[in-house]
Amino acid sequence: MIQQTISRPFHGGIHPPEHKHLSNQAPLRTAPLPEEVVLSLVQHAGRIAEPIVQVGDRVQTGQLLAGCQSGTGACIHASISGEVIAIEPRPMAHPSGLTAPSIVIRSDGQDSRWPWPTLPDWQQASDQQLLAQLEHAGLVGLGGATFPTWIKLEGARKHGIRTLIINAAECEPYITADDLLMRSRPEALLEGIALLERLLQPEQLLLGIEDNKPEALQAIAQAIAGHALESRLKACVLPTRYPSGGEKQLIQLLTGQEVPSGKLPIDLGILCQNVGTLVALRDAVVLGQPLIERVVTLTGQAVRNPGNWLVRLGTPISQLLQLAEADPEQAERLIVGGPMMGFNLDSDQYHVTKGMNCLLLTTAEELPLPGPEQPCIRCGRCEDACPVRLLPQQLYFYAAGGAFDKAEQQQLADCIECGACAWVCPSEIPLVQYYRHAKDQLIRKRADARKADLAKLRFEARKARLEREEQEKETKRRARAEAAAKMAAAKRAASETAENPTPAPATAAATTTATPAPAAENTASAPPTAAAASGSLDDKQLKQLKIARAAAAVAVKKAEKTLANLHTTPDATPEQIQEQQQRVEAAQQQLARAEQRLQDAEQADAATSQEPDR
Ligand code: SF4
Ligand code: SF4
């Protein structure tokens, strides 16, 4: 394996105390099977998964519990075998503190496996077989972003990738889940890399790892000897500096390229994958195991037995804290993730999710709660620390003052919420909380604007429909009056004929009483007007016109129903609604024409039938 030490820095960054030694001394262990798991249906970026099981169903480990339409989220699988005992909202380990729909399984203690297909000789399998195996594995980015891996892969294959970056930086203090995974399963990691290389065909493979993980690097170096990747994979050893594992920072460190604001790595032909995700990807293909477990670091000075455990998803956090021998007397804060990007939990009554890489239980001295917020003294330290070259103090002023649009203009969206600015702020301003609040407000504002646009569109469409209906009614009224006048004239002519025995030419009478109608579309074989004029309009032709009118009426109903559905679909765009509105109008016009033709033909027929016998 080629190794390179990277010395080029990225802008800003900090080096807080690492505290990694607490949890990286013991080997990776496997947590006991939980008696009950709570699997949230919101464990990934994207749409909520939809349950396909019911309360009372017996399920096996790995069985699909909830699915997502392709390209919209990630599936959820049973992490233990047993019985589904509830499908209901449960508290979600998330900064919002909200509940999420969840599936609860009580274990039968068997851990019997769902028979997923395996592909141990995946080198012989086609790309389509591999992709099909991965599509339903429920994989997400295990570094914390929880973006569905399948969607990322699809995009990368469509776009084409030049560089595949394996993110082994794990730069956040305390967390050692990836470190221990690399030490314990380097062969699985290499197989995961080889699989992705096969699917994406990148020109280069780069692995970025901080220099505080020599054991992991050595394990990979040993495993790669004689491996097909030996001459392909380049390990880039980075100086330990937070947040070197941020996607854009890692890309800059490894390739020297900066991902421009508003762009994605894929726009530069680069894809980053976390080591945990690659091992899970390998297990999905080779073992046929969907994502049902992950490595979680249990650490902090308030636990007596820190380390890393392979944990089934949905396991109660309280059970893990027991495993790590948490000391309730000492515990001050329980954090999901690390001290920089993590969030506090108010209790241990939550459950492990796909994105949960660490549980940190700290003492009051170890990680004191921030002191009272002081005014900004414009010292500029936050600006020096920001790895994205933002102006954190300016963003703070805008966010605190409610000037969210201005914060947006200052590239608030580029903020990766790394917390480096807040870490160095002498005024103890919780800067990231201000940024999150501003981002939430902007999302809400955009959603409100979209709702208002839709409401306006609906109002205008309704107004146009009412006007059109009124116009159509008026046209029909006029047509009826005209037809009645013609009918009266025909009657008068008929009675005059009866009084006057001189025969009048029948065709002339028919021609004067029949209202000209446009040719019937598709259904009538001959124009009814011509038939009426010749006195030969028969039942068959009238029937065809009636069928044409009925078909046009059905088409209108269908189009209106689709439009109504679009109005209640949150994802429907104004363009889609407008397009459907036009379809409705076209169908209504078609119906009006069909009705008019039928009416004309019926009147012509009636007039013809009233002619005196020749
Ligand atoms: S570090 Fe804190 S006090 Fe200093 S400029 Fe930034 S926000 Fe203001
Ligand atoms: S949290 Fe945002 S503003 Fe603060 S340092 Fe990180 S990227 Fe910059």
Automatic annotation (TrEMBL):
PANTHER family for this protein: ION-TRANSLOCATING OXIDOREDUCTASE COMPLEX SUBUNIT C
Known EC number: 7.-.-.-
UniProt keyword annotation of Membrane present: yes
Protein name per its UniProtKB record: Ion-translocating oxidoreductase complex subunit C
A single GO cellular-component term on record: plasma membrane
Cofactor: how and how many bound: Binds 2 [4Fe-4S] clusters per subunit.
GO molecular function: 4 iron, 4 sulfur cluster binding; electron transfer activity; metal ion binding
Amino acids binding [4Fe-4S] cluster 1: C376, C379, C382, C425
Xref: NCBIfam families: PRK05035.1, rnfC
Annotated localization: Cell inner membrane
Membrane topology: Peripheral membrane protein
Known function: Part of a membrane-bound complex that couples electron transfer with translocation of ions across the membrane.
Chain's gene name: rnfC
Residue stretches of biased makeup (Low complexity): 484-534, 575-593
Entry annotated with the keyword Translocase: yes
Basic and acidic residues composition bias: residue spans: 466-483
List of residues binding [4Fe-4S] cluster 2: C386, C415, C418, C421
Stretches assigned to the 4Fe-4S ferredoxin-type domain: 366-396, 405-435
Predominant place of localization: membrane
GO biological process: electron transport chain
Region (Disordered), start-end ranges: 1-24, 466-537, 565-614
Keywords noted in UniProt: 4Fe-4S, Cell inner membrane, Cell membrane, Electron transport, Iron, Iron-sulfur, Membrane, Metal-binding, Repeat, Translocase, Transport
Signal peptide: none
The protein's assembly and partners: The complex is composed of six subunits: RnfA, RnfB, RnfC, RnfD, RnfE and RnfG.
Required co-factors: [4Fe-4S] cluster
Annotated family: Belongs to the 4Fe4S bacterial-type ferredoxin family. RnfC subfamily.
